[in-house]
Amino acid sequence: MEDYGSSDEDIYSSDQESYDGLENEEADSQWGSSTGNSCKVITRESLLVAQREDLRRVMDLLSLREHHARTLLIHYRWDVERLFAILVEKGKTCLFAEAGVTILEEVDVDSSVSSSTMMCGICMEEVAGSEVTKMDCGHCFCNDCWTEHFIVKIKEGQSKRIRCMAHKCFAICDEAVIRKLVSKRHPDLAEKFDRFLLESYIEDNKMVKWCPSIPHCGNAIRVETDEFCEVECSCGLQFCFSCLSEAHSPCSCWMWELWTKKCRDESETVNWITVHTKPCPKCHKPVEKNGGCNLVSCICGQAFCWLCGGATGRDHTWSSIAGHSCGRYKEDQEKKSERAKRDLYRYMHYHNRYKAHTDSFTQESRLRETIKEKVASLESRDSRLRDFSWVTNGLYRLFRSRRALSFSYPFAFYMFGDDLFKDEMTNEEKEIKQHLFEDQQQQLEANVEKLSKVFEDPFDGFEETEIMDMRMQVLNLSVVTDTLCKKMYECIETDLLGALQFSSHNIAPYQSKGIERATELNGGRNTKANNNITCQKAHDQTNGGSIELVHPSGCGTSDESGCSSRKRTRKDSGGSFFDLNLPAELVDRN
């Protein structure tokens, strides 16, 4: 196990390149989080564009109609790369069968039926051929039965995968036919059906989630690589993409859920009641003793012994209660009381420190405007110093380090407690790991406090030499806190969570430049000109079996991969947006 107890002097000896990188790390985004292109904001207007981008990739590769491509993507949760992997591994036939896609090339699947009359297999009535619809699977029923079937399924919330009515047929119905039949009788349900299809890109896609802002901003966030990350929406909300709660790294989502529940439900108040009160044996309400006599009375009128909790009569002397004796020692009850006290004090230790750092973070966040004014005052002076980016960079380094430090206490509460990992390590191993982690935590805490103190000084009135000294101090402390944060995360990911055998906890990785701010999706994924995807159309071998795909190395769904979406250019008529209730085919025609 790596020794994380390095001294401050060792960290202070960082080379000059660290300082240079620190001064320039946020030149592109002053007073804000880091920017990047690995997560995108999907607005109401760009949702259809993002969905059709993936649809087009599948349609072009497999030569499918849109509703078949959508059925495949919904079944595989809009994971295009997983769909392609299953296609290569199992073949087209298995891929289609698992998703309920039926394509009968030798059977005429035109929805219109040429015969004059036929009997519907559902209502058993003779109907005209023009009033009958045939699905891709070849099953044919009257329009009234189809419409009733579709209406029931839409009302039940099964719009995204409506199956054929035939017995033991698992084929998914054509969405264009559903839209056509339902709109004649219930136009509102047809709009609801279209909305469900559109929003399935978010609801069923593990890499796309709604922003949890309240009130809701209407945006969704799409990540390209790892779902265990923290992002910032364009509305300014920072949150954990995995559990949609506030950003809580280095706590895992499970730990944070338990911690918030513990604080929200005031479960420790119940713990306090266990320690300082005893239940009435009659009404079971908690009773607190307010005198020296061990014979206490509840408001319900029941008298009981404070020592053992047993119901008694009211006759007593100074030394004893008539007809009652509880002088025998009961070890279990004593242990239970001591355990409750120990758990309470342990929780208070971690909660007090978590709360203190959270309050400090709130107070330090208010320094932004004050620091801006001080920097503006220094820039207006006639001095050789013109670049004060180190002030803003150091301030945001303080914010990030303080935030990580505050959430490290709930992590330690569960990591070294008996709630989650009791069977993962022995008491000796737990003690060693706890000491190593707490050494890291204390070093980070000490340097964060030093950095915080520097920014509280009235440096706008300093002389030039004092400002130069402060600059070196801020740069030194910023490098130290950043290095200590990285080492603390390495300790957590490698030595603590990485060593678990019976459970798995994932945390968002440490980002020196802060939580990444998502950029707006404008017309789909950006592609590099020299790294376009080349998906060689598969040549079906006998019975349409295996499919061969040729991908360049590094091909994926992210912007960096350079995968072309083959998306048709969006036509803008008078600056208006797409109507989300329009069928995709109609959008293309328009």
UniProtKB/TrEMBL annotation:
GO terms for molecular function: ubiquitin protein ligase activity; zinc ion binding. Residues 555-564 have a biased composition (Polar residues). Pathway: Protein modification; protein ubiquitination. It is an enzyme of class 2 (transferase). InterPro entries: Ariadne, ARIH1-like_UBL, E3_UB_ligase_RBR, IBR_dom, Parkin-like_IBR, TRIAD_supradom, Znf_RING, Znf_RING/FYVE/PHD. Its EC number is 2.3.2.31. Residues 1-35, 553-574 are annotated as: Disordered. Residues 1-28 have a biased composition (Acidic residues). SUPFAM superfamilies: RING/U-box. Gene3D superfamilies: 1.20.120.1750, Zinc/RING finger domain, C3HC4 (zinc finger) (3.30.40.10). It catalyses: [E2 ubiquitin-conjugating enzyme]-S-ubiquitinyl-L-cysteine + [acceptor protein]-L-lysine = [E2 ubiquitin-conjugating enzyme]-L-cysteine + [acceptor protein]-N(6)-ubiquitinyl-L-lysine. It holds the Pfam family IBR_2. The keyword Transmembrane does not apply. PANTHER family: RBR FAMILY RING FINGER AND IBR DOMAIN-CONTAINING. Belongs to the RBR family. Ariadne subfamily. This is RBR-type E3 ubiquitin transferase. It comes from Solanum stoloniferum.
